Amino acid sequence: KLNHNYAMSIFDLGELLTHSQVLVNQLEVYADKLQQRVDLVDSYIEIMKEKMAQAEKRDSEPLSSFPFMRHMQTDWANILWHLEQQPGEAQATAFSLLHSELPTAKDVREAVNGLFRIQLIYNVNGSDMARGLLMGVQHNYSLTAFEVHTMAKYLVEAEEYIVAKDCISVALDLYLADEANWDLYEQQGLSSDSLYELHVEVLDNLSADKEMPLALMMAAMKRYPESQNLKRALTRLEMSVRIGEEPQGQEMEDVFSYFRCCSSECRRGSRLYCLYNSKATAFLRLAPLKMELLSLDPYVVLYHDVLSDIEVLALKSLAKGHLVRSVSHNVTETENSEDPHRTTKLVWLDRDSDLSHSVVSRMEILTEDMTSLDLNSSEPLQVINYGIGGHYAQHADYFTEDGSDPHLPDRIATVMFYLSDVPLGGATVFPLINLSVLPKKGSALFWYNLDHRGHGMSSTSHSACPVIVGSKWIMAKWKNRLPQLFRRPCLREQ
Ligand SMILES: O=C(O)CCC(=O)C(=O)O
Ligand SMILES: [Fe+2]
Fold first, then answer.
1. pTM of the entire structure?
2. Nearest partner of 467 among 383, 347, 387, 382, judged by Cα
């Protein structure tokens, strides 16, 4: 069975709609066949009754008995043949061919993880999530007891009992309030028993000493929803239950800075400004770029309106159909492996591959105009689409801290284009410098990863916050350090 990693890309999730259409069509064909069969059997019943009535009326002379005998021999054999036919065999084959294209239990688990991430980072409770109320905005969707029960089940599997408890009580509430549909629930395998059973399992697993303070805290939060202190304490408690230990001091501050800057845009000092950049390359004298200075150290700028809608469309069309799940380098394994900290699909727009297109070279040159850094030996452009609650946990884009390997093609700078707006969530956050940027289609971030000595700057570590609503597309370009000898020379150490 192929793994489509449906939870990893909102775009690829669209394929399921096509599959669903095919399956519904097949089911309709099956229903038609069954209906034809019922009609046929009904007509046979009529015929058989008729024959029986005729036979009863006749006396037993040979000539009039013969039709009945013939009927009893051939007609019933015929009916037996019909009974033995399996209706829907062709449809079953069609189903099983498509089955490998459908989401797996792993996909659903990964989707639940995405929703859990949204709950945790944006502080959304289960009942609001089920009602479609996210960060104070009412969305046009709601979850039923089915989905919330599924979430609870997977959360229990992942031993996330605190959130599972919230989920299972929401699932129970939804179920109890929907009595009219209990039969439907039962038919699809969800009974009140299974809900209560899961509830008990969750309560059983919540250790008494942590559940009590948490319950008290929740009650207090209800009474003082505005209290930032309570909110912090609650998050700390939840994290301690989740991770088993409390993060300390600075680490905790970074977590809060991350949560806060995911929820609303964080901007740095007031001495920063906007300008038209007409100097980075000669071409910019003709076509200056709108530049917003976001941070001086590390140097981070945001270019506005650098891509047209047509360019964005062209880049996404190149990527569509070629997206593959992101993998990460893992020190313990020889091969790159799936990474729960990076839930996206991507494609490299290699200039030498099938995906080369004039827009790709134009984009490459644009990154040179934006950075005045040499393009040579840098990695190809990478187009990325995020999944359900898709995120990229905190990381730095450089490979070594101290520039210890001068031959390593380390990434001196990153250019990151936003290829879509994201209605809710999906900000790029630099927690250590209290900075976040909300995605806006057509704009691009540029920052240096390495300092003037070629050492990685840990202050550039950054994250992509979980996407709550929308399909987030970005395109990244990492510039290689080596060819920048004359563009950005090393400075002598002071
Ligand atoms: O999507 C984002 O906002 C950040 C992505 C990122 O950091 C990366 O791809 O290296
Ligand atoms: Fe990054």
1. 0.85
2. 387
